[in-house]
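Thread: Newbie trying to understand structure tokens

Hi all, I'm a second-year student working on a class project, and my supervisor (Dr. K.) asked me to get a predicted structure for one chain before our next meeting. I've only ever worked with sequences, so writing a 3D structure as a token string is new to me. If someone could post the tokens and maybe explain what I'm looking at, I'd be very grateful. Here's the chain:
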Amino acid sequence: MPSNWVKQPQQLLAKYFNSGSGDAVEGGLITGIPSNIAASQGSQTRVGDRLVLGAADALAMSDTTVGTLYNGLYQYVQTAASTATPTLGHLAFWDTSVADSLYRVTPDESGTLGVENFAGVYINTLTKGYHWWILVAGGVNAVFAAVLTGAPAAVGNAVFAAAVGAGNPGVLDILDGGGNPTFTQVDQMLNRYVGVAQGLPVAGAASKVIVPLSKVRF
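---
Reply by user tm_fold:
Sure, no problem. This is what the structure looks like when written as tokens:
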């Protein structure tokens, strides 16, 4: 990955940012160029590349039949040959079985790290093994667990990655505000913290959350 912080979005997007099922090859295929003309990919997208989109750009790049994108930091990654399907609004985790330089993510929880290796949120449903962008910091519509641990749900709740077990798409949860947590529970909260609910958390549905920049892996 280039060592610069982010790259420019020009020439990168030939379709809505949150449509399709990803790139079958890294950077996508060049199409429409005659075979007798030597051409370069130009500003080729590589795994690990990042883009910052403002609110207006994110909305313009949104296929609103799929969902609405918000201002934030997006990263180009490869999806793993996972058990679960990389699904719109669900959580992505870093695949720790490969080198960090591969920037590979999976919807599956880790056998050793569980949900603690949070990478970001899928902005569309991808084909396993394909490459595409995920939201790593900023606003995103993310799916909450079918049953929320905490009550009452409210705008401004801290949200956490819910440990729902490998093979199930990752979701968010809120925690019970009562009682005194143990040191083990505090450790889990720190490791599983994802961000803050900007919309009202609803069980089994997606609502807007803000993922802080501190969650980004460099």
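A couple of things are worth pointing out once you decode it. The first strand starts at residue 50 and ends at 53. The CA atoms of residues 111 and 145 lie 20 Å apart. Feel free to ask follow-ups in this thread.
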